[in-house]
Specification:
Elements (H helix, E strand, L loop, with lengths): L2 E3 L9 H7 L8 E3 L7 H5 L6 H13 L5 H12 L10 E3 L4 E5 L9 H16 L6 E6 L3 H10 L5 E8 L5 H8 L6 E6 L3 H12 L2 H4 L3 E3 L6 H17 L7 E6 L4 H11 L4 E8 L4 H8 L23 H8 L4 H14 L6 H8 L2 E5 L2 H15 L5 H11 L9 E5 L7 H8 L20 E3 L3 H11 L5
Parallel strand pairs: 4-12, 5-6, 5-8, 6-7, 7-13, 9-10, 9-12, 10-11
Antiparallel strand pairs: 1-2, 3-4
Pathway: Amino-acid biosynthesis; L-threonine biosynthesis; L-threonine from L-aspartate: step 5/5
Cofactor: pyridoxal 5'-phosphate
Keywords: Amino-acid biosynthesis, Lyase, Pyridoxal phosphate, Threonine biosynthesis
């Protein structure tokens, strides 16, 4: 298995190379040259396996010769052994059709842990084979930062620089990042939005002054290995609800399109996915793209679901590439136009291909609160605002009654206690394992939303590639 760039001109890499590279040298995102596919019998045989074994089975075709099957299984057992629930990603029932896939049982209480706990181990594995040092640069709208920092804190040959928009992440999200005091962890609060931070990160990958000195790596969902790990929980949920013998629909709260693209990959691999419901908040570029073909950047509106306060969805590029016949040159031109004008219209092939599997819905502040209230009053479940966007979309999607609809619960409700309390009167408490979060010392640097200031800070504190 090798990996090619969505923009067509970067060198193809194996799995280890793509994992360490993150963003391709031509500005594109790495994708497998072809999608592996399981037969119905092979999927049926996965039922009942422990999560780590299922993960190794689903991911093995993507890893190729970069890891033995035994080593991949060892890494999966190490990654998922830190989760608070033995099932890792358990499924809970709302009512006769609606289900909840709990993805927040990892160390930082968010779905990002499922991928990043493994990614941290993969970095350590592949770096251990060389004298190379890796400088991870990431942007976070909330949960990626804490999950990535937890995954790589204290690991050899890795430094991590995580940018977050000052004042636009929750108190819990910020403290989960800034209270990690390992010497290889650097938190940077910038003026501006997540999109501003993400643009700086992408620019750094294509800045020769930085890439000549430092091996720049990614933990955002631009990193293929992270998306690969997220494919597994679609299989886990589908198998519990009758796959491969009946289809399952998934409602996915998303801003950067990574989590829902993992569902698309699962479908390409043979999982019977009835529908992927893309749930956004009022920052609805994905909803507009999927309903009218209009992928035009708007202004970010801060909401109670800050991890979705995004107007440029990086992973959407991977879908456009696949639906456009994997034509890297054509997509490079299309993305160059978007980057220059902040507007884009999907081609007929892209729009029609997306409509075959995807639908979408947006939730405003009232609809978000109503979904939180419904889950509590009708089902006795507390959910966070991001998950609420997914529940709102799932309940209005009009999926056939014989098909279970699974909403991905992307964060623990205690990460957003104010919004949950406003909607339900109940204030969720942090699990005991992170209960002392507000007593821990913080460490963070404030920088202006200026690329030169950020790169100067990274260059001063990072270890050269070696």
């Amino acid at each position: 298995m090798d990996y090619v760039s969505t923009r067509g001109s970067a060198q193809a890499l194996d799995f280890a190379g793509a994992t360490l590279a993150g963003l391709a040298s031509d500005g594109g995102l790495y994708v497998p040259r072809e999608w592996p596919r399981f037969t119905e019998a092979e999927i049926a045989a996965m039922a009942g396996r422990p999560y780590a074994e299922l993960a190794a089975t689903v991911m093995a075709p993507f890893v190729g010769e970069s890891l033995t099957r035994e080593r991949l299984l060892d890494l999966c057992r190490a990654a998922y052994g830190r989760f608070a629930h033995k099932a890792v990603t358990p499924v809970r029932q709302f009512d006769e059709q609606q289900w909840l896939l709990e993805l927040f049982h990892g160390p930082t209480l968010a779905f990002k842990d499922v991928a990043l706990q493994l990614l941290g181990l993969l970095f350590e594995e592949f770096l251990g084979r060389s004298d190379r040092n890796l400088t991870i640069v990431g942007a976070t709208s909330g949960d990626t930062g804490s999950a990535a920092i937890d995954a790589v804190a204290g690991r050899a040959k890795v430094d991590i620089f995580m940018l977050h928009p000052r004042g636009r992440v929750s108190e819990v999200q910020r403290r989960q990042m800034t209270t990690v005091l390992a010497p290889n962890v650097h938190n940077i609060a910038i003026e501006g939005s997540f999109d501003d931070a993400q643009a700086m990160v992408k620019r750094m990958f294509n800045d020769a002054a930085m890439t000549d000195r430092f091996a720049i790596g990614a933990v955002n969902s631009i990193n293929w290995a992270r998306l690969m790990a997220q494919v597994v929980y679609y299989f886990a949920a589908g198998l519990q609800l009758g796959a491969p013998h009946r289809p399952v629909a998934f409602s996915v709260p998303t801003g950067n399109f990574g989590d829902v693209f993992a569902g698309y990959v699962a479908a390409k691999m043979g999982l019977p996915v009835e529908r992927l419901i893309v749930a956004t908040n009022v920052n609805d570029i994905l909803h507009r793209a999927l309903t009218s073909g209009d992928y035009s950047q708007g202004t970010v509106t801060p909401t109670a679901a800050p991890s979705m306060d995004i107007q440029v969805s990086s992973n959407f590029e991977r879908l456009l590439f696949d639906l456009g016949g994997c034509d890297g040159a054509a997509l490079a031109a299309q993305m160059a136009g978007f980057e220059a004008t902040k507007t884009m219209q999907l081609t007929n092939a892209q729009a029609q291909g997306a409509a075959a599997l995807f639908t979408s819905a947006r939730a405003d502040a009232d609809e978000m609160s109503q979904a939180i209230r419904w889950a509590w009053e009708e089902c006795g479940e507390l959910i966070d605002p991001h998950t609420a966007c997914g529940v709102h979309a799932a309940r209005g999607a009009g999926i056939d009654k014989g098909v279970p609809v699974v909403t991905l619960a992307t964060a623990h409700p205690a990460k957003f206690p104010d919004a949950v309390e406003r909607a339900t009167g109940q204030r969720p408490s942090l699990p005991v394992r992170v209960g002392d979060l507000f007593e821990r010392e913080e460490r963070c640097v404030d920088l202006p939303g200026d690329y030169a200031a950020v790169t100067a800070y990274v260059a001063e504190h990072a270890v050269p590639k070696g």
